Amino acid sequence: MMTRKLTIIAGTGGVGKTTISAALGYKLASEGKKTLVITVDPAKRLANALGLDFLSDQPTLIKEFDQGGQFYAVTLDINNTLDDFIQELSPSDRFIDRLKENPLYKMIQREYSGVNEYMALQKLLTLQKDTSFDQIILDTPPDRSVLSFLNAPHSLSRFFNEKMIQALLKPTQSKLFSFGSEKLIGLLEKLTGAQFVVSVLDFLRALVEIKTGFDAKLSEMNALFESHETGFILVTQPYPQSYHDFEALLSELEQKDYHFLGVIFNRSLSAFDQISPSDVQCSGEGVEIVKQLQADESKVYEKLFERMKRHSGFVIKLPEFKKDIHTLEDLADVATSLDQ
Amino acid sequence: MSSKNTLRILNLQRIEKSTVSFVLGKGGVGRTSISRALAASFAKKGENTAWVTLEHLSSISPLSNLTHININGFDAFQEYMKRLINLGPLTKPLIGSNFLRYLVEIAPGFKELIMIGKIWDLTKHHDRVIVDMPSTGYALVMFQAIFNFNKLFRGGKVHRHTELMIDYFSDPDLTKFLIVSLPEETPLRESLELSEKVQKLFPNNAPLFLINKKFPDANLNLQLEGAVPHTISEYISARNKREKESLAIWNKQNITYSEVPFISPKKDLVLVLSEQLMEQTLL
After folding, report:
1. Are residues B227 and A333, on separate chains, in Cβ contact within 8 Å?
2. B208/B271: higher pLDDT
3. How remote is the C-alpha of A137 from its chain's centroid?
4. Does the pLDDT of residue A161 top 90, yes or no?
5. What is the 3-state secondary structure (H, E, C) of B109-162?
6. A168: pLDDT strictly greater than 80
7. Nearest chain B Cα distance for residue A131, angstroms
């Protein structure tokens, strides 16, 4: 199973990314590497998987191995990062104060406008510059299409779209817009009240001021995704819907020419097919369901295998584990299964 | 049937009273199937029902008698603007302009407000509106947008609408929040967290819980060596045990919930689910 200096674990909601990210980190550390697992984790999944109540936003040593490997974990504190971001890009303190007064700015902090993902990438950029780590694993945000995570920098750049800025801030420059925009602003004010429109335009002016800095960060992030030192692992499950999501994600990676390392087919039921001979009480209904799931899984796996022929990436099947993963011992079990 | 089960099943009867049901939950729990089946079961009873999805991308096969409305942010905004403004011949070009499109894009939460506003509007035209909400975090963003803009829109026509929406969604006789979960630790924990967050926004409207895909209990209780099951019965036994243990935490806290069993992939999901759900409301 291949990894790169930065390995990004991607896949849609509920497939097991966090557990796998942690297990992979554990495995690499057990092989003597200094490893860091990064997560955007408002629901504290990673902390739970490690048997902790919470994770620090500074890399914390989770386990040290005899051969010298070290397993670190860190989480992104979403609430603070937007402020950090603005701080870093702001031309002045006055700018920051003015922006923080804007009601729209306050709303962004709670939004899924791409900001959380952008912040994770920001933190990643910083952490990845720490050359003391041999390997970094990024667990991508849960409950959100990973397509949008990868696209976050671009979706935020819509705020800095030149055409739009011209249209909104300098309507009189364009004959086409001049009459329309003024009329529209007037109309909008009747609907939303003057405060909304003023806030939007003010917000936009503020964004224009930090555009240059933002563009520079954007380039850095793109460079990171495209780099030879970065690779993507996709995680999926043996259901038709999961396969569909996997397909979409893989196409996206292909389009962008990112390095695709392989796929982990998680919670597989194909490793067993016997009914225990000593047991006679086995419920017919449950057995029927499992057999049907196994049949469906084979079909999905076949499709996956075909699709993977275009790549030299790995295909790993992980079995469904007996219990939930929330101790280091459990993680060690998953890590062992990853040895394929 | 034990009294505990009856209590759980009766839960779903409370949906009967409401007009709009928001089906919530994290990714992978079955929101789409459940919301669609719920809508289908009401439609079967002859009620004027709309099943609503929000900017849903993958294809869904249509069901007869069931109206499926897929809400798109900008389209909904244009529709809304057309209703509130009339500029004669200027209306169309102005409303379709890039200027407005950019404005909708740039204001954080604005598009989400428009979409949830459209859902509220649908209650005027349908007896039932069942909404397949996006995954947890984004669903909360949509609800939060109503409150944010309620504060921000002072002095505008739209402000009144946000007030009405807050009232409507706060009323348990009109609105239901249905949180779907799997009988597994992580989804269960997140469901409770989600419920708390929804209750903070709508204090008088406690969400209902529905546990989806509960695996049939085979009563095996096998002792398993190692971390991984090796036979089908070992798998079933382990799964039953895990699910029981996860739900035990909820049972100890006296959390009431409805249960929907794991339905074999061979069967027509919507058909079986809507029968299940109908059965439950009739009991």
Report:
1. yes
2. B208
3. 11
4. no
5. CHHHHHHHHHHHHHCCCCCEEEEECCCHHHHHHHHHHHHHHHHHCCCCHHHHHH
6. no
7. 34
Tell me which residues of chain B, numbers 43 to 82, contact chain A at a CB-CB cutoff of 8 Å. 58, 81
Give residue for tokens 């089908």: B232
Q: Quick one: what percent of chain B has pLDDT higher than 90?
A: 41
| Between residues A192 and B2, the one the model is more confident about | A192
Q: Residue A134: in which H helix or E strand, if any?
A: none
d(CA A305, CA B48): 45
Handedness of CA B82, B83, B84, B87 (dihedral sign): positive
Q: In the structure encoding, which two tokens stand for residue B151, read together?
A: 């504060």
* C-beta of residue B20 within 8 angstroms of C-beta of residue B123: yes
Cα angle for residues A295, A264, B218 (degrees, 5° grid): 45
- Residue A8 tokens read as 């990004």
- Convert the pLDDT of each residue in A266-315 to its tens digit: 999 988 767 766 555 555 788 888 988 999 999 999 999 999 988 889 99
Confidence band, pLDDT 50/70/90 cuts, at residue A175: very low
- The model's confidence at residue B282, banded by pLDDT at 50, 70 and 90, is very low
pLDDT for A102 equals 85
Is the confidence at residue B248, as pLDDT, over 90?
yes
Structure tokens at A124: 């990643």
Question: Residue A108: its chain B contacts at CB < 8 A?
Answer: 108
The ipTM is 0.81
More confident residue, B126 or A104: B126
Q: Which residues of A touch B154 (CB under 8 A)?
A: 193, 195
Q: Residue B110's closest CA among A285, A104, A265?
A: A104
What is the distance between the alpha carbons of residues A213 and A221, in angstroms, rounded to a whole number? 13
d(CA A160, CA A216): 13
Helix, strand, coil percent values for chain A (each to nearest 5): 55, 15, 30
Per residue in B222-235, pLDDT (tens digit) is: 888 888 888 888 89
Inter-chain CB proximity B228 and A287 less than 8 Å? no
For residue B152, what are its two tokens? Answer: 């921000």
Instruction: State residue A16's pLDDT score.
Output: 86
Torsion A138-A139-A141-A147 (CA) sign: positive
DSSP result, B182-216: -SSHHHHHHHHHHHHHHHHHSTT-PPEEEEEEEPP
Q: Do B231 and A276 touch (CB under 8 A)?
A: yes
**In whole angstroms, what is the distance from residue A194 CA to residue B38 CA?**
42
Contact, A136 vs A94, CB < 8 A?
Answer: no
Give B228-266 as a DSSP string: S--SHHHHHHHHHHHHHHHHHHHHHTT---EEEEPPPTT
**Residue, of A203 and B139, whose pLDDT is higher:** B139
**Residue B48 CA: distances (Å) to CA of B20, B24, B76, B97, B169:** 12, 22, 21, 35, 20
What three-state secondary structure class fits A317? strand
